[in-house]
Design goal:
single chain; 182 residues; mainly alpha
Length: 182
């Protein structure tokens, strides 16, 4: 993930980067945000300046950076299909697997904000292909659900699940090629 893919206060980025490391260690907790703030600014509650909504605000920002990083890969040349976008996303987030696992656990307890965050990601994925100006809700929801399944398989990370994930991404690529509306 490229933290410079979004224009933001450098300290906000620094706290966010450290928050990723702390969340990997401590889970999606206020303690993790406090620890990130202490590491960056020496004040435990300094993160509240950037993320007044707490954990959810922090996760939304980190997700926004990840989305921007993914989209940046397709600025000059649009993706051939959604499978290419998803593959880039997985490549960019390889080092963040432990963080993503922790966030998914948090998301199970906070499904409304998780779905909204993933809907935004799905819309950006469609935009990376340049094939649909404004995908309808059903398409976005379908991609959201399918991508969530792919993430779950990707997080397990074994040889067999890699083959399964590649197969599932391939199905998406085949569907894209057959459906001219995409």
């Amino acid at each position: 993930m490229d933290w410079t893919s979004i224009a933001a206060d450098p300290e906000k980025i620094e706290i966010s980067e450290e928050a990723v490391r702390q969340i990997e260690r401590h889970g999606v907790t206020l303690f993790a945000l406090d620890s990130a703030s202490i590491a960056v600014s020496k004040a435990a509650s300094h993160w509240r300046y950037y993320f007044p909504g707490g954990l959810t605000d922090a996760l939304w920002f980190i997700s926004e950076v990840s989305d921007a990083s993914m989209a940046q890969a397709f600025v000059d040349t649009k993706a051939q299909d959604l499978s290419q976008v998803i593959s880039i996303r997985f490549q960019q987030n390889t080092e963040l697997k432990k963080f993503v696992r922790r966030v998914m656990l948090y998301d199970f307890c906070h499904p409304t904000q998780a779905i909204a965050r993933m809907q935004r990601t799905a819309r950006i994925m469609y935009a990376c292909t340049g094939t649909i100006e404004a995908p309808n809700r059903a398409r976005v929801l379908g991609l959201n659900l399918y991508y969530t399944l792919l993430v779950m398989v990707w997080l397990i990370d074994t040889r067999m699940t890699k083959r399964l994930n590649d197969f599932l991404v391939g199905i998406l690529a085949s569907r894209d090629k057959l459906d001219p509306k995409n």
